[in-house]
Amino acid sequence: MKEHRLRRIFGPDQKTVIVACDHAGFSGPLPGLEDPGKLMDTLVASGVDAVLTTMGIARRYASRMGKLGLILRMDGGSSIRAVDMGTLRNQFTMEDAVLLGADAVICMGMIGYPEEAASLANLAELTSESAQWNIPVVAEMLVKSKDGSPLKAEDIGFGMRIGVELGADLIKASYVGPAGEYREALKSCYRPVVVLGGEKAKSEASLLESIAEALDSGANGVAIGRNVWQHSNPAGICRALVALVHHGASISQALQELNA
């Protein structure tokens, strides 16, 4: 059953383009997320594989998600306005996810942060329950370096390995080069990995170049948020990502999709 659900997230080539639009559950109204229904229409038409979103959006706009795979954000605990961020916890149950028709669930694993212990407990709770409900678990592994220096690929590798050891079926994590070091980090992660989009990219070319490098190194796809729905042409950047991830397009070929 897990494999059936994962086939709704991954293409036949075992690659995936996921669009993350769960940000408003923490940050409130954001430019680009004002109309989730319109965004769903855009994603369906663009050919991306799946959407990562909140309980609210999934419930309200299920009828507009078409064949998109659904990954449900499970954890939280505060908003961006909180005086005390408190403790991360799973806010929804596996039964909630099943009743909603989710194909996978996701929670954070925050290595090196004050929330580390709580986040890893949340992850373990979900992976324990996933066997009963046959729901794949995605671990979004955020990592701080040991000494505050810039992140290295080995830091990302450390976080990814923690995630799979706790039972995650899929890892979402940053890409950190150089490519050779990232490739080595992936060797220790025995589950598929998708690259998170992070902060707003300086340009489409820089975003696609980073993704292409990660794919060439062995990543299985991307999970992109604000670089899609805050783009002036969300449909175009989605098509560019699909061309890059699924069709092996060059950067210049992928960029042409922006004007298609």
From TrEMBL:
Matching Gene3D superfamilies: Aldolase class I (3.20.20.70)
Source domain of life: Bacteria
A Pfam match: DeoC
InterPro entries: Aldolase_TIM, DeoC/FbaB/LacD_aldolase, DeoC/FbaB_aldolase, FbaB-like
GO molecular function terms listed in the Swiss-Prot or TrEMBL record: fructose-bisphosphate aldolase activity
Protein known as: DhnA-type fructose-1,6-bisphosphate aldolase
Organism: Longilinea arvoryzae
Phylogenetic lineage: Bacteria, Bacillati, Chloroflexota, Anaerolineae, Anaerolineales
